[in-house]
Amino acid sequence: MYKIVGEERFLLWAVCSIQLQVSCGSGGEKLLSLAEALLKKHIASHSLHEPEALVIYISILEQQMKYEAALEVLSGNLGSLIGIEEDKLRMQGRLLARACNYAAAAEIFQKVLQSCPDDWESFLHYFGCLLEEDMNWSSASSTDQICSSRSVDFPASKANHLTVEVFDSRISSALSFVWKLQLDIQNDCIRGPYLASIEIERQRRLGGKADDGKFMEALLNYFHRFSHLSCFTSDVEMFICILSETEKAELLEKFVKILETSSTSPIKALGQAITVFKIQELFGVMFKFPITELEGTAKRMVEMYCKNLILSRDLDLQENMHGEELLSMASNVLVLLFWRTRKLGYLLEATMVLEFGLNIRRYVWQYKIPLMHLYSYMGALSSAYEWYVTLDVKNILLETGSHHILPYMLKSPNWLETGNLMKEYLKFMDDHLREVADLTFLAYRHRNYSKVIEFVQFKERSQHSYQLSMVRLEALILQLKEKADNIEEIQGILENANYGIQLLELSNEDKLKSLTFNEDLQARPWWSPTPEINYLSEPFEEGSACLREKLDQHKVGEKEQIARKHIETKSLIPRLVYLSIQASTFSLKENLEPNGSVSDVKVILEMKCLLERYARSIGLPFDDAVDVILGIAKGQKSFKDLDSDIISWINFAIFVNAWNLCSHHPGLVSEDGCGLTSWHVVNFLVKTCTAEVLMQAQPILTNPGGSLPVLVQLVTESFSWHVLVIQSCLKSMLPSGKKKKKGGAVDQMNSPHLQAIHDSIQCLSNAIRGIQKCVGDQINKPEDQNLDILLSLVQMEDCDEGPGYVHQALAESASANSSELGDRISGALQSWNSASGLRKIIAAQNKLLSHFHRICGSKLKLLESLKRST
């Protein structure tokens, strides 16, 4: 097209496509040289006419490390295509630094900062060039907004090659430049130059050449100017983390003194008080407070919020209210109190605080997300789901944010809501992957070539999403769970899914290695930093000075490895379910030849291969895993000795039993050579596992985070797969049209296989009946009785410490005369009461229990009908 028409856009389409080939494949050097030659030839005859065309050309040269050539292009006539001078300067600075011309690069970044003093990224590049450090130039931002220090990779001082005199001279030069910028600033909101003073002192400190007094002075100066801003703590976090414990205590004491002695507007004073609370959180001070002091802190936060509601009376409903962060922090303190004391009242107060805030303004996502996690932890999943719906999560947020609710739902009996969540997510991802070609073409047409690359790279990342793989698996498994009582429907579902073969591909080594993890975990509550971790389910560590130290133990690589194991294990289940049905059918065919048919042998061999993979995914070779389940069945081992979750082991035993019906593993056959021992092993594991879990089970009302999800998974997954094997066996024993004897049993009445099946049906019935009774006892309690129990947990007692102080503060605020706050806030306060929130928890828990009770009833009904057929 370019040869025919000679238009620049067609050439750039070709060049951009070459860049995509390089980013997605190999042969980069030759392809980039080809792209450069094409552009050079076009420039010689036609020049360039679009800014994006120049950016692409510079990028081609930069990828080949031809920095001098790129600088020459940018400094020539073509450089005028970059309309914003600061953007052009940033590109020049980057190219000079990559060419190791640090002095010239530093001068360029000085010019940028004189125009954009709040461009924090350019500050870091300026410092890096002064100290001749390697910087991460993989992406160049043109923003002139200050970045959060937590999101910037601050360069630690590596300038050991600089002499002391040169280092001091350059740091002094940087300090003089920063001071000049501070003097020239006319806007009180510009923070960059003041933050830069702290960074300079940090560099001195890291280089062992610092005056610690100046470092502290720079921090205090920043506190004086900006402590009223909500971003203060995130701005200074990277700096204060290098302080010793003594220095942290000294700094916090000085912050408190400044707060107590400052005379400023009520809004700024409120912001400063919030900042001090945040610094206490950051330093881990809360973990060292006595219980009574923590209670007092939570109460002060709530009272401060209520006292300052007057400041927000004239704000629009959509605007952030002053002091909103106080309720989030108060809730965090109450959760910490629960973790330390295991008193449920504190957890109930944590939910009350957030509900109180949402009653006043329903648009605060910072309240909704922790509230969703609290409700999910307490088994009030329908309430959590209701708040999730109000977040109006759409588009890419479905990929980055659904981890807040989906992992909880997948272990629940709330199948309708779980199915809706996954359908919405899969629809977005399928639509996005289908439309990305149109979006890419649109970007080409509009000559937005950087967007072309962005769309293609985003598609690559989306296609390999861990969550996408996981939801595809779980969506099919949910269908199997929903229809598990009807083997014909199960076979139809498996047939539509290509008998589970497609999903097996998700667990191959290349697919697992290429998985991308796109979840935004920053908004998760401190006590559940990832979906796999929940500190509230662990005992509190008295020696824990700071939660961040504990968080560091859970490395990103470890989390990703767990996720890959999860995908590998889950991807095997649909195929193993199908093969289990087939194997159990083959094993009892009346006309089965002694050596089995070819298809039968293939099923057995494939099943053995998949079981070996399943065993490896739960941490052991196949034979060792079989020895473990045999050891449990013989009383030589316990479920407590297992590293992996119970559900995976029960599933393994059930699938091994189905495979053993045809293969007769040496350790799983009875004395007469029949593969019957595996039935007894499964029966023993079902009986023992159920008994152990029920022994630990406590009422969901007063024992959050209990064993109910394990019981749900046992019944809806493990037991369901075993029932399918039983149905398949019975179906093969009684082919269509086969007549029963008068007694109602089939010809194989005395068959040992039939007796084993009968025993398994009885074992499953007993286990599910015990679970159903446990659940039913909780449902049958009157709501008012449950409400009285929860209210008693948040009532203040005569003792010095315990839940109730925050509840009392909320109740007093709601009942006080609040007409001066305006109709909206006043009405919200008067409409709030703690009992309605507690009733929501009770109703949501009962809904979950009722769903599970019905599932148990359905299973028992099916087992009873199967028992009659034996």
Automatic annotation (TrEMBL):
One of its GO terms (cellular component) is NatB complex. Pfam families: NatB_MDM20. InterPro entries: NAA25_NatB_aux_su. Belongs to the MDM20/NAA25 family. PANTHER family: N-ALPHA-ACETYLTRANSFERASE 25, NATB AUXILIARY SUBUNIT (PTHR22767:SF3), N-TERMINAL ACETYLTRANSFERASE-RELATED (PTHR22767). This is N-terminal acetyltransferase B complex auxiliary subunit NAA25 isoform X3. It comes from Elaeis guineensis var. tenera. The gene is LOC105057168.
